[in-house]
């Protein structure tokens, strides 16, 4: 009877060892660099983005939202990440083809740590120098900086800033009716 339990235990140990070896969960004999994962981001653009084209007779404003993203593993502007987190900094620029009121409450960030997790809808921890003003009236774009601390990305991660406020919370003749995802700039 004891012999049967011993054989089952050995078969189980061999099976687990094979599973670990084939799934890559053990250390190889020779060291290899650890993989680094980068969040999925929209395509980058270094070209100047043209102003949105007006659509006559429509109450919908077309938004031009671009950003530059940087990451910091340690303290930035008074915000200290928890262990395993990074600080993401987005320098944002927003303009419109029609007059629209803007302020820092329009920004959100869609985030997913890895491919198995659902997308979360988050707000920045801090917004610097983003004005409350009218864009699309010829006075130029609104610019500022969004800062948020998030867990370091893994394979299949996603980080995507967007510009949107529910229509029933917007004021003025022209409205932004859908989320506008930022276009990543390189400069």
TrEMBL record:
Region Disordered: start-end pairs: 29-57
Record's compositionally biased regions (Polar residues): 42-51
Listed name of the protein: DUF4352 domain-containing protein
């Amino acid at each position: 009877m004891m012999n049967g339990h011993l054989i089952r235990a050995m078969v189980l140990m061999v099976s687990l060892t094979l599973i670990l070896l084939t799934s890559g969960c053990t250390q190889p004999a020779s060291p290899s660099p650890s993989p680094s994962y980068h969040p999925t981001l929209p395509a980058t653009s270094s070209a100047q983005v043209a102003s949105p084209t007006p659509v006559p007779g429509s109450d919908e404003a077309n938004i031009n939202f671009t950003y530059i993203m940087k990451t910091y593993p340690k303290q930035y502007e008074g915000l200290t990440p928890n262990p395993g987190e990074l600080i993401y900094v987005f320098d944002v620029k927003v303009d419109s083809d029609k007059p629209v009121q803007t302020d820092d409450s329009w920004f959100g960030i869609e985030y997913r740590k890895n491919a198995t997790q659902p997308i979360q809808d988050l707000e920045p921890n801090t917004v610097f120098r983003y004005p409350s003003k009218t864009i699309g009236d010829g006075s130029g774009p609104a610019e500022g900086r969004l800062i948020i601390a998030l867990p370091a990305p893994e394979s299949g991660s996603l980080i995507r800033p967007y510009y949107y406020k529910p229509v029933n919370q917007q004021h003025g003749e022209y409205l932004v009716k859908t989320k506008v995802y930022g276009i990543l700039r390189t400069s």
